[in-house]
Amino acid sequence: MVEVVYQKEDGEKYKGREDITKVVVASDVDIIPSNAFRGCKNLVDFDFGGSKVSKIGSRAFYETGITKMKFPDSLKEIGLYAFAYSNLKEVEIKVEMIDEATFSNCHSLEKVILKEGVKSVKFEAFQNSKNITTFLWPDSVKEVGSDVFRGCDKLHELAKSSVQEEVIEHLKDSNLPPLVNLCRLDGKLEEIKRILLENPEAIKVRLKSVLTSSILASNAQS
């Protein structure tokens, strides 16, 4: 077991080091650069300490053994593929943008909490993180890229259940006009059409959940 203190001048010094198990960040560090700990497969404990890190570079924790991380309030930016193929089990984060493929292929990831303030989730951000079963999505999110949830099999099943429940709820309202009003799911209507065909009495359905829509749209392409 090797524990290290990450200094401001260290850059990619520890890239690929499989003997490192714990890292503590020095207080004057403000950026974790790209590839800083890439390939540190036995790194499981990462402590930001008293640092004010504002940016995590691309692929900084790519293929690491990290299972959990408490992100500092100072964090503003995370680069693409930053945690791809890591062992993260839970993510709770507040940054304005989740970049492309940031948490893709995190096969141990089960729970994601995006806190209020997150505005954009980019292309393939959680792609193939197939064991996610909990995903909390704030109202602040205004932009969702394509394939964000592609390959998130368990989340896809939950989304379909959510849509079915919403259809049933609307069927109970006899005062709705004879109009089927569907959100377009980025042009991917297959799942909604199937559900409607199974419920021919449907007269109006409105799907308001951006999250549910995005999940179904992503997986319709799988």
Automatic annotation (TrEMBL):
Gene3D superfamilies: Ribonuclease Inhibitor (3.80.10.10). Signal peptide: none annotated. InterPro entries: LRR_5 (IPR026906), LRR_dom_sf (IPR032675), Surface_bspA-like (IPR053139). This is Leucine-rich repeat domain-containing protein.
